[in-house]
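Ops channel
N.P.: pipeline sanity check, posting one input/output pair.
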């Protein structure tokens, strides 16, 4: 499965003096910084990725580095869309659990503990229950996973908080988004 990942970069951490760079040099440095700071997620979040372009999304994003200062409203919209995608992922996984067993966390845990092997099922759950629970917890915790669609390099989290949007709005010169096509 392919997913567009938006990597939020705090420019002062990536480049010491952005004014000394041409736009293309700055794009290259920020892209490299985002790539290097997400390399450790190889085989946990993605098994391959496109970093020089936005890959399958290249027609929407001809350059895969977006600067907040270029269009603050559009940049914030990109983040807001991603925040909503994360919320939808949480809700979808919760719905799967709710339809399977309900939302009583103690009951879910007890049923998962009854499983004799990974592919097992009980009267109330199938082998995907632990996966749905993990997805919810990972997204709420900020664990970088394929379905988080986002990673904040400065804060080392995949959770997109409202304060992130406020920080971008207050200092748009300091923020960039790097768009990678990730596969897992």
């Amino acid at each position: 499965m392919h997913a567009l990942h938006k990597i939020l970069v705090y420019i002062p951490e990536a480049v010491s003096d952005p004014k000394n760079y041409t736009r293309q040099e700055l794009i290259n440095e920020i892209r490299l910084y985002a790539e290097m700071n997400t390399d450790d997620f190889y085989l946990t979040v993605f098994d391959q990725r496109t970093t020089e372009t936005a890959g399958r999304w290249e027609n929407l994003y001809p350059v895969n580095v977006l600067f907040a200062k270029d269009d603050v409203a559009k940049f914030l919209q990109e983040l807001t869309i991603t925040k909503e995608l994360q919320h939808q992922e949480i809700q979808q996984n919760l719905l799967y659990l709710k339809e399977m067993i309900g939302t009583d966390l103690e009951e879910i845990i007890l049923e998962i503990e009854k499983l004799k092997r990974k592919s097992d099922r009980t009267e109330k759950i199938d082998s995907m229950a632990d996966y749905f629970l993990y997805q919810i917890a990972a997204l709420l915790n900020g664990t970088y996973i394929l379905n988080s669609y986002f990673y904040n390099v400065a804060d080392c989290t995949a959770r997109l908080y409202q304060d992130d949007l406020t920080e971008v709005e207050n200092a748009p010169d300091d923020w960039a988004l790097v768009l990678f096509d990730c596969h897992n």
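N.P.: looks fine end to end. The longest helix spans residues 72-100.
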